Amino acid sequence: MGTTKRIPLVTGLSLVIALLTAACTATNNKADAPAPGAAPKSYADEPAELVIFGAVGNTEEVWNERFGTALKQKFPKYKFTYIQGSAKNTLQSMIAAGQTIDLIHDSLGGMRANIIDNGYNYDLSPLMKTHQIDTSRFETAVFDSLSDKGKLYGFPLHDGGLVLYYNKDIFDKFGVAYPKNGMTWDQTIELGKRLTRFDNGVQYIGLGVSVNHMLTMNPYSLPFVNEATGKAAINTDAYRKLVSKTILEPTDANGYRQYVTSIKKTFNNDNFMKDKNMAMFVMNFYLQLQPDFNTFNWGIVSLPVFGDLPGVGSQPYPNGLFLTSTSKYKDQGMEVLNFMVSDEFQMQLSRKGFIPVVKTKAVRDAFAQDTAFKDKQIVEALFTNKPASPIVRSANEGLVLSPLSANLAKVMIGEMDVNTALRLTEEQANKALEEAVRK
Where does the record locate the signal sequence feature (predicted)? Predict the structure, then answer.
């Protein structure tokens, strides 16, 4: 599928907020703006048949457990039909079959390819005005991430973000103090060096990083693709600084490169969860939902920060619910979206361990209280840092990320220098991007 050049996103939710006060009307919105001081019209009692496509791939059972049951209880007049997405059951096959879709559950990573490129994108700004949505409650950066060219196409349901997991058993074994919230990358790398050692036939790694997650959600908000030119944007001093500090410097510890060479890959979840020879691991939150986390004593702290970005964590990476341009029930759809970001429902998600998208203190303080890991100081780990500004996502990010991670793996074991890796990646990625445009 070809791509088109797009104007860079200058503002996200800020433009939406401006639109809320502007004198505008929506051609596809049947409700007029309420009089000043008047409550917005409710559509909760007006029947609607809403078809939800689960592009994330959750089963209907999982969808209902997290979202569907609450929606049916809140809107008894609505009929909800959930369609699980899969490799065979795609949005393209739905379009070809003429299937009506009103709402799409997707991650940020699928917004460009699934929502925008398929023409499902619908600017929510006019509906937000008539339904009097209070945007001051929202975590701005999280909502910004679902914007494109100043238009908001969906509401986030819950967020994601990078954190630092650690294995308490390894720290205890070597008598080293646990990491703390608010540490810098320099401090964390030095701590990792103390724990990268060979002991009793086992090579321990002090600090591992999920390369793809670090690059995709990087705190400097560096994109893979230049939005204006459509070319790779990674052969820069800023990218060199990012990868050198977070991915390459940890490998300076004795025995680190030799171990990476022996396993012939960069680190993944299994190295931390199953092999249990890694003291610290930078990864997206929710890793603790894996059953292997029950087999060792783990902890969690905030993502290390850069000295010139104090208090800034990773970019948001939410799952969202998108109202489609083809839906005949846009007002009812907005009722659904508004409920999903209400304190009432966000509290339910928060207690279950899903990162809330509202700033309400009570909602955040209740985080993970209904989970087995409620005593792990999760709240501090997640909310010590503020989210980094989201970038404009490209549907072709993978064409840059794939060769970039492969070449960085060579740098980690000493087969290539970082300058060559970034230059070669840009050449490989630009060739792939040009081919994608021609298709």
Answer: 1-22
CA distance 191 to 56: 37
Helix (H) or strand (E) segment spanning residue 193: helix 185-195
The closest of 330, 316, 317 to 120, measured between CA atoms, is 330
pLDDT per position as a tens digit, 353-402: 999 999 999 999 999 999 988 888 888 999 999 999 999 888 899 999 99
Q: How far apart are CA 38 and CA 262, in angstroms?
A: 68
pTM of the entire structure? 0.86
Identify the CATH class of 162-314+396-438: alpha beta
Spatial separation of the C-alpha atoms in residues 147 and 155, rounded to whole Å? 10
Domains of the chain, residue spans: 13-160+318-376, 162-314+396-438
- Cβ atoms of 222 and 239 within 8 Å: the answer is yes
Contact (CB, 8 A) for 411 and 208: no
Could you tell me which of 146, 220, 155 has the C-alpha nearest to residue 392? Answer: 146
Report, at the CATH architecture level, how domain 13-160+318-376 is classified. Answer: 3-Layer(aba) Sandwich (3.40)
